[in-house]
C-alpha cells in the first residue's frame, strides 16, 4: 500500500509540474542593460570632499582611510573605476554601506568620486 501512495503522490506532482510549465510561467522579461554613465573629469575641491568624508565616511572607513567597519580607501582609485565608486556612494552596498542618493547633490557626488579616485 505504501508503494501505491508514493506512486500516486509522484503522479500528482508530475501533473502539477506539467500544468505549471504549460500555463502559469511568467512572461520572460528581457534584460535591459543599464545606461553607461561616465563620471566627468572635473577639478577636485579637496577641502569640500574631505569635509564630506569626515562627517559621513570616517566612522566606517577610518581617519587615515585605513578601513574599520568599511573597507580601506587609501588606494581605492587603483582598485575601482570612478564609475564603480560613484555607484557605490550613490546606491550603497548591502552589509552596511548606506546610500547617499537624495542626501548629496550631483556636483558633491562627482567631486567626492573624483577625490576618491585620485587615491592610488
TrEMBL record:
Iron is among the record's keywords: yes
Molecular-function GO term, any one: heme binding
Pfam assignment, any one: Cytochrome_CBB3
Gene3D superfamilies in the cross-refs: Cytochrome c-like domain
Record's protein name: Cytochrome c
Key words, A-Z: Electron transport, Heme, Iron, Metal-binding, Transport
Superkingdom as given in the UniProt entry: Bacteria
Record domain Cytochrome c: where: 44-120
Amino acid at each position: 500500500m505504501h508503494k501505491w501512495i508514493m506512486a500516486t503522490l509522484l503522479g500528482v506532482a508530475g501533473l502539477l509540474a506539467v500544468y505549471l510549465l504549460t500555463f502559469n510561467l511568467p512572461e520572460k522579461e528581457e534584460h535591459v542593460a543599464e545606461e553607461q554613465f561616465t563620471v566627468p573629469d572635473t577639478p577636485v575641491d579637496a577641502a569640500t570632499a574631505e569635509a564630506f568624508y569626515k562627517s559621513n565616511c570616517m566612522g566606517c572607513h577610518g581617519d587615515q582611510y585605513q578601513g574599520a567597519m568599511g573597507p580601506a580607501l587609501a588606494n581605492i582609485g587603483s582598485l575601482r573605476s570612478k564609475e564603480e565608486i560613484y555607484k557605490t556612494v550613490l546606491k550603497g552596498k548591502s552589509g552596511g554601506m548606506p546610500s547617499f542618493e537624495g542626501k548629496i547633490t550631483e556636483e558633491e557626488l562627482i567631486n567626492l568620486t573624483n577625490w576618491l579616485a585620485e587615491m592610488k
